[in-house]
Amino acid sequence: MAVNDRLLGIVAFVQAAEAGSFAVSAERLGVTRSAIGKRIARLEQQLGARLFNRSTRRQSLTDDGQAYYERCVKALAELDAAEAALDSGRREPSGRLRVSASVQFGRRCVAPVMLELAQRHPRLDIDLSFSDRVVDLVEDGYDLAIRIGRLPDSSTLAARQLTEERLGICASPDYLARCGRPRNVDEFEGHQAVVYGRNGHTVPWRLRDDDGEVREPRVQARLRFDDLEAIADAAVAGAGLALLPCWMLSRYVRNGELQMVMYADRVIGSRINAVWPHTHYLPLRTRAAIDLLVERIPQLVAWDPANPAVVCG
């Protein structure tokens, strides 16, 4: 096997091992699934060892494959480092970057960052997909996802926290005039609320009381939506209290359509994370996207307790 063919086989092997799928690795490398299969088959023939246990949907490594994989990723990392040392300051992110984000947060805060990334790097193509469904990055072929909330333990994914999402509780002036303004956690009892729910699960409200204890207020959640804009619209219509992210609340507060009832310093928020398939050598385009998200997202979701209407620019 020629040296170049062997290197192509090793790259295909490492990508397939990390993706758990020949089809996904083929999409990442921009070749056909059969090309990946042929490269790995030639590599196995040259090594005289079977590297994968093959099934119809996923491929798992054999013991020989696992041992070979661990050495290959170190070798590829060394090659990557050597290229970076020689080409420092001249390398440019290129190729296609596939990114997934939730609908409202993606449109409001992720899209501007991806636009800036594309403007910085003309050789980079970006596919940004908006969905509130939690996509399988490996199976669906995504390079990066922005996720809000607790992440499940995973050996196939890596993550970096971007910032903390600030939340606030609000209501329309009409609702507060009719039903009163709760001043502490106990006074939430009996109030109508519009809550976020998905797949039969309602996201709880978690507030700090005057003693710093975290509690869940007792509200009457007669309306449950799986869309933040719908929750905001219902709150504006006077349907009850609503828990919304501050980056979304700002325009409603500025317009006088909603008033803050409890501020972000009393409401327990969620982490915003960048998540990507675990790999021992991260493509430059993915690294560039993560670095810019780390820089920009905290600015876009910043909350000023002295001026709660000034959020997200």
UniProtKB/TrEMBL annotation:
Cited InterPro entries: LysR-type_TF_proteobact-type, LysR_HTH_N, LysR_subst-bd, WH-like_DNA-bd_sf, WH_DNA-bd_sf
Keyword Transcription: yes
Record key words, sorted: DNA-binding, Transcription, Transcription regulation
Annotated HTH lysR-type domain residues: 10-62
Short name of one Pfam family: LysR_substrate
Keyword check for DNA-binding: yes
GO BP, one annotated term: DNA-templated transcription
GO molecular-function terms, A-Z: DNA-binding transcription factor activity; sequence-specific DNA binding
Family: Belongs to the LysR transcriptional regulatory family.
Name of the protein described by the UniProt record: Bacterial regulatory helix-turn-helix, lysR family protein
